[in-house]
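Budget justification note: compute hours in this period were largely spent on complex prediction jobs such as the one shown. Inputs:
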Amino acid sequence: MTNQRLFASIITIGDELLIGQTIDTNSAWMAQELNKIGVWVKRRVAVGDTREDIWQALDEESRESKIILITGGLGPTADDITKPLLCDYFGGKMIVNQEVLDHVTNIFLKLNRPIIERNMKQAQVPDVCTVLMNKRGTAPGMLFTKEGCLFISMPGVPHEMKGLMTDEVLPLLKQNYKMPFILHRTLLTAGAGESFLAERIKDWEEALPAHIKLAYLPNYGMVKLRLTSHGADGAALEHELDTLFLALQEQVKDIMITNEDLPLEKALGDLLVKRGKSMATAESCSGGYIAHLVTSIAGSSIYFKGTVVAYSYDAKETILGVNHQTLETKGAVSEETITEMFNGLMNVTTADYGIATSGIMGPGGGTEDKPVGIVWVAVGSREKMVAKRLYFRHDRLKNIELTATNAMMMLFQFIKAEPV
Amino acid sequence: MTNQRLFASIITIGDELLIGQTIDTNSAWMAQELNKIGVWVKRRVAVGDTREDIWQALDEESRESKIILITGGLGPTADDITKPLLCDYFGGKMIVNQEVLDHVTNIFLKLNRPIIERNMKQAQVPDVCTVLMNKRGTAPGMLFTKEGCLFISMPGVPHEMKGLMTDEVLPLLKQNYKMPFILHRTLLTAGAGESFLAERIKDWEEALPAHIKLAYLPNYGMVKLRLTSHGADGAALEHELDTLFLALQEQVKDIMITNEDLPLEKALGDLLVKRGKSMATAESCSGGYIAHLVTSIAGSSIYFKGTVVAYSYDAKETILGVNHQTLETKGAVSEETITEMFNGLMNVTTADYGIATSGIMGPGGGTEDKPVGIVWVAVGSREKMVAKRLYFRHDRLKNIELTATNAMMMLFQFIKAEPV
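Corresponding output:
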């Protein structure tokens, strides 16, 4: 057992990363998962589909870290040079792996599609690697060892990489290395800024022992607070961290959404399930994004009735029954329209609670008195509705995301305040 | 004038990148901009707020590239070590830069906020650097030269980094280096797998000259094909690449969505605008995700009427007029229900075209004859409807994304086949 950090490097391969066509979201996810089990990512390197550059990266990173995770460059097409390179690098020769071959054949059989030479190539692997089965695709993960370093190569498709990490890589790392204990406790607050929050919990934060770190993770008007502790004695750490975490929750209880590491839409869903209630949305400017977030949660069909995305005047009128007169005189982005949209939603669905949104997301459509970023949000029940005017100053997509988050936050707080 | 590529490395600094707290979007943007002016990003490296790691990255990257762009680590807080390190690395000492001091003072005056010690520190820079003024923030950009390499340090805040790149860095690079030309041509295909596509264009691909590269970028049942060419003579390159690109388009024309570097939802929107038509969606299993994708495109209110997310039986019946009988006898995931949903959508909206979806996204809800991943999609106009049964085998979110992509693809192809 050692207290020294176990270092990893992440190498991502692909020209698309170097010309800026793809934003690398894999590395952040991998870093999070590695962190949770006590592996510290020391460096992340992106290189192109160039043999010498990949080779050099393997050399360099194995001098820095014990664990080298490689993603990308494993598809069946001609621009993929990673697999033969890995074969050479680790001094092997290519052989056919029967298990992968069966797996690939099976996938194509089930898809009822012809399997061609190129697909079969996925089953070829260096004879010096251990194959890690990729349940979600045809390109297998591969594990190599060299001079005390562990190299693991995975496809770059996020979904496949995540499956391999979860099913194979993380369990394998936990088994093979003695990790220091790393514990996290996370809570989500809404409606208070980072600096305001920092000021409020200042004394508590300053009294934290050196081996416990607090991170502020601000996102869309919410701030996640994450406590991280590491050391050798798991049970003692856990007890200490839970005590501190309880004290933190006490200090932020009026603005806390959940004391678990959950997204807002999951916390909202859990609250609805607990209360045995349902919801629906009438979305104009958020364009169905709230519905998407809510329905991305497994089991949401229990509490989610549906949505009307009323993007045009006629959809607002025909489906939600908004008065033509209101739209003409007050405009789509107004307290009057949002109220009628909300009422219309409660009429066409059987939901207990509702959300309505209408605003100008940009870049076009703004006027002097209603600039881009102005949004009306209404939330409520059949008995009561609360409407609020919000103002965001970002680009279109960010404005949509902020509208959705703020609307869900408002509904969450509305339901919380309801008598049980 | 040389034909050799001008290489750049991007170094991003910050622990938040290594624990996965922040997704690095800066590097992709920088790479795109550099690429446009003919600078090739060779490597991207992320290191933490650790002196030795940053120092080493500077050493290593200056062996790889002539231009080293550094972002992050320049804020006013105590944990920032980048600036003093750069000062040591280039053998300078810290001095106060009057122009930056005036600029910082001015910002705080305008904000009507007290300026504290910490903020004044922003005006301190190494005496061996050239200051690049940051109009959007307090941390200045800094330019250093060493052994024929150019080092440029910028703050990590995306908005400030982009301002500095646009106003200072890119013009400076264009002035100081003779660039080779880098050109890209991208097209998007749908419905054919990567390996099938590779097989089809094999002869054409093998005949490509050495300075032109083809990349396959598969995503959700679509494959992007990207041609990249580089060299000295811009006009000749352009002509050559366009000729090859035309030949490629000819070979994939039956499955090509667009010959521009656009997402499917934008290509679909452009097609609707061109035809002067509109669309709407009735979504069950896709839960509003199609609506979100379509409305994420600026200007979509011109052609997007709205959506009914009919997640529950009652929403399907009340809003879309699906027969209770149909739901009871055939189930929500059936050709009969999808047909009634589609017809209902055309009734409640004025859209010219529509999409309807109903399926089981998982992880729960599957049965023997309707397992998780079964989806019915209908697309069409007021005259004609096409319904298709699809089957995906992924996790919930991916199944939702695949449903959305395939549905948009189907509608795109439906509209394409319509008489103009």
